[in-house]
Amino acid sequence: MKYIAILIVLLIIESAVGQTVVDLSEFKKNGTTFTRNHNELTFLWPSGKEGRGKMVLNLDQDRPLFSSVQLGTGEKFAEIASGLDPAFVLRIGKRILSPSSGGWDVFFDRFPTKPYKTYALKLDKKKVKVKTDGTRTIISISNISASTFKGDLEIILYNGTALFNISASITTEIDSTAILYDAGLVSKRQIWKQMAWSDTDQKLHKTVPSREDISRNLEVKYRTIIGENPQGSLALFPAPHQYF
């Protein structure tokens, strides 16, 4: 049984001892370039007619995965964000199987009202595989796991747009498992000058974040929230279930 938790992100404006193994056997020329400096991987991809996106991944276990995310033209880049980790939280329960319909007629089975346990997916940066799929570059990082689930973290770069996709592609061998998930990007530092979103009445809201803020549930248009800095902005929008 396989589930995929996906977070889509939009930007606006050879192995050695002690290093993670990086497999480049399926990485081809498609406009995206790759360089490695010790445990830092740098990817450059065409983000538009003249623009380029730049992503620096840190493979040290005790450092944030996204060391730097940048956008620019030529050799001049503006750093949109730094020191970010992807975060996925699973709520795992039991699905009710109905013999008359094959067991999959009710997707959530009123899942939040039934017993469940909550787990944060843990990423161990043991191995990286970079492969090309047409104009896409897929970066798979192993392993990511929680409870009985395990799999890979995937980052997909899309040539021609300042867009990349983050997904936790995970599998469990336990049948009739139900999950809900939360996905996002986290940092130990306060990195945004403002947070912005549009409500369902298309009114734009902005707030200055602080460490004392607590989580709030908001009705947000397009499932999108934006972190803003003077250099640029980063928008996050998790895909709806129809995407799968």
Secondary structure elements and their pairing?
Layout: E1 2-12, E2 21-26, E3 33-37, E4 40-46, E5 51-58, E6 66-73, E7 76-94, E8 117-120, E9 122-133, E10 136-146, E11 149-158, E12 163-171, E13 177-186, E14 194-198, E15 204-207, E16 225-229, E17 232-238
Parallel strand pairs: 2-9
Antiparallel strand pairs: 1-12, 1-17, 3-4, 4-5, 5-6, 6-7, 7-8, 7-13, 9-10, 10-11, 11-12, 14-15, 14-16, 16-17
Which residues form runs of ≥5 with pLDDT under 50? none
Number of strands: 17
The largest sheet has its strands arranged as 2-9-10-11-12-1-17-16-14-15
The shape is globular
pLDDT averaged over residues: 88
**Cα end-to-end separation:** 14 Å
SSE string, helices as H and strands as E: EEEEEEEEEEEEEEEEE
- The tally of domains stands at 1
Radius of gyration: 19 Å
Q: What percentage of the residues does DSSP assign to strands (E)?
A: over 45%
Structural class: mainly beta
Q: What is the helical fraction, as a range of percent?
A: under 10%
Q: What's the helix count?
A: 0
Largest sheet: 10 strands, mixed
Key traits:
58% strand; 244 residues; 0% helix; 10-stranded mixed sheet; mainly beta; 7-stranded antiparallel sheet
